[in-house]
């Protein structure tokens, strides 16, 4: 049923009860609901409109947003405004602009052999499909992988020049060929290939690929071009400004700066702000990753006070620690431990170490930050009271995109890799000592 003439409708109204059932509607909205299989007295059948109605009813606030609704061979761009009213909600829909969707990108050209394991991701590189039978042959539970980042299934190996073909594929929107990897379960060496998926608007929508066991006699894989500076600059330009706006608006809602907001909506805003900060951190890490892996990367060192750096890093994380119920024992104010290094990079390393310690410390725990001189080196030690790190994982955590438990809430597996590269670029090192169940001690050394 075509909605002929509806683009000329200025505003169409509807009334819904507290359970989302349609009580009354103007002809335009009634026709749209009928086309979606709904009827008067039943729940609103247009998903985008029903979602806005549920949100307004649950939070008790006005919801106003743009939505796109499928209408046979075209889409409708609508503006929906939903206002709680009595025990139900009142909806006003305007816009009614018809949009002809762009054709979807061609299907993947990846051809799976009998021994290959198929996989797909969404735009956030989270797994949406893993071949069940093929995964079972490798001892992997395919269903448990769904929703996990692709790095929960594969450990990605860099090419000879330090580049990761998967990042190049995402950045340049081009097929990924010969990404070397290891299956986390059983440490089987794999070769990944993938095509880029696009949505109807031509935007990146994920990867669809195949994984096959690497053969020992396979010919050397040609190295993909390194992740270029233009890639990280593009990320910075494309993501930093909109993410900053999202975080600012979410923080405003969370702080109730413009008036009281229902508690669950406040918490929702806090989640949005935290997710935005996580993405900004990922952008920063990718920019740093591109820098530290250049063959000519170096740092200009100067005299710094490592104790002062440790105190500043502790101060920067004091609010986060307080919110988590964790105390930070920092160096005394009059302690001085001269060292040679880059102040900003040393601070970055200490913030990373203390932040990790706070994240993995139990409530009521203490993160100890001490700085001493040891012969010709200055040492800063960050010790926590967390669950510790198994011996076999203590070197692995310094590798790229590696985390002890990818299912845990945390970083992206780049922080410690970058921190160690920075420490060594300053003539020092970053190491860890840990006993499972007895916390971990990370030691940053710099020339004294």
Structure described in brief:
This protein has 448 residues and is of the alpha+beta class.
Structure description:
With 448 residues, this protein is an alpha+beta fold. The protein has helices at residues 27-35, 47-59, 132-137, 142-145, 165-172, 229-254, 263-292, 306-316, 318-323, 343-359, 415-425, and strands spanning 11-16, 22-25, 63-71, 74-85, 88-99, 117-121, 127-130, 154-156, 176-183, 188-198, 204-213, 302-305, 327-329, 338-341, 366-374, 377-383, 429-434, 440-447. It has four domains: 6-99, 2-Layer Sandwich (Beta-Lactamase), CATH 3.30.450; 117-213, Beta-Lactamase (2-Layer Sandwich), CATH 3.30.450; 229-292, no CATH class; 302-447, Histidine kinase-like ATPase, C-terminal domain (Heat Shock Protein 90). The chain is built from eleven helices and 18 strands. The strands form four sheets. The protein has a six-stranded antiparallel beta sheet with strand order 7-6-11-10-9-8. A five-stranded antiparallel beta sheet has the order 2-1-5-4-3. Strands 13-15-16-18-17 form a five-stranded mixed beta sheet. α7 runs parallel beside α11 (415-425), α8 packs across α10 and α10 packs antiparallel against α11. The longest helix has 30 residues, at 263-292. The radius of gyration is 27 Å and the shape is globular.
Q: How large is the radius of gyration?
A: 27 Å
What is the subunit organization of this protein? single chain
Largest sheet: 6 strands, antiparallel
Number of strands: 18
**H/E order of the elements?**
EEHHEEEEEHHEHEEEHHEHHEEHEEHEE
CATH class of the largest domain: Alpha Beta
The CATH superfamily name of the largest domain is Histidine kinase-like ATPase, C-terminal domain
CA-CA gap between termini: 78 Å
Helix fraction, binned, reads 25-40%
**What portion of residues belong to β-strands?**
25-35%
Residue runs with pLDDT of under 50 for 5 or more positions: 1-8, 102-106, 217-227
Structural class: alpha+beta
CATH architecture descriptor of the largest domain: 2-Layer Sandwich
CATH level 3 topology of the largest domain: Heat Shock Protein 90
- The number of domains: 4
């Amino acid at each position: 049923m075509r909605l002929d003439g509806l683009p000329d409708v200025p505003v169409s109204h509807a009334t819904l009860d507290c359970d989302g059932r349609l009580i009354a509607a103007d002809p335009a909205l009634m026709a749209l609901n009928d086309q979606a299989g709904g009827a008067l007295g039943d729940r609103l059948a247009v998903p985008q409109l029903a979602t806005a109605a549920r949100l307004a009813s649950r939070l008790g606030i006005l919801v106003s947003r743009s939505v796109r609704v499928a209408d046979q061979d075209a889409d409708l761009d609508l503006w929906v405004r939903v206002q709680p009213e009595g025990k139900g909600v009142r909806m006003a829909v305007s816009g009614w602009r018809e949009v002809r969707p762009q054709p979807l990108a061609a299907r993947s050209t990846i051809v799976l052999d009998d021994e290959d394991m198929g996989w797909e991701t969404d735009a956030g590189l989270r797994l949406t499909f893993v071949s069940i039978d093929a995964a079972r042959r490798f001892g992997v539970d395919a269903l448990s992988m769904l929703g996990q980042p692709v790095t929960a299934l594969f450990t990605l190996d860099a090419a000879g020049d330090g580049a990761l073909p998967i990042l190049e594929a995402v950045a340049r929107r081009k097929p990924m060929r010969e990404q070397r990897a290891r299956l986390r379960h059983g440490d089987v060496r794999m070769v990944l290939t993938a095509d880029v998926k696009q949505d109807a608007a031509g935007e990146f929508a994920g990867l669809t690929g195949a994984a096959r066991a690497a053969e020992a006699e396979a010919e050397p894989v040609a190295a993909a071009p390194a992740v270029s500076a233009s890639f990280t600059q593009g990320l910075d330009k494309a993501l930093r400004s909109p993410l900053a706006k999202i975080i600012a608006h979410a923080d405003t809602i969370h702080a109730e700066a413009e008036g009281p907001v229902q508690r669950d909506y406040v918490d929702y805003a806090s989640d949005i702000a935290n997710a935005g900060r996580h993405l900004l951190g990922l952008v920063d890490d990718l920019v740093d990753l591109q820098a530290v892996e250049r063959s000519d990367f170096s740092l200009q060192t100067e005299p710094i006070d490592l104790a002062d750096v440790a105190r500043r890093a502790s101060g920067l994380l004091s609010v986060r620690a307080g919110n988590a119920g964790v105390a930070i024992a920092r160096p005394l104010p009059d302690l001085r431990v001269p060292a040679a290094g880059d102040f900003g990079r040393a601070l970055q390393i200490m913030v990373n170490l203390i932040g990790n310690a706070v994240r993995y410390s139990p409530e009521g725990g203490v993160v100890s930050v001490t700085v001493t001189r040891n012969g010709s080196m200055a040492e800063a030690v960050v010790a926590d009271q967390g669950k510790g790190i198994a011996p076999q994982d203590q070197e692995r955590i310094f590798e790229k995109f590696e985390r002890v438990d990818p299912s845990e809430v945390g970083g992206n597996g780049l922080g410690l890799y970058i921190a160690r590269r920075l420490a060594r670029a300053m003539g020092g090192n970053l190491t860890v000592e840990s006993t499972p169940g007895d916390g971990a001690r990370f030691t940053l050394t710099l020339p004294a």
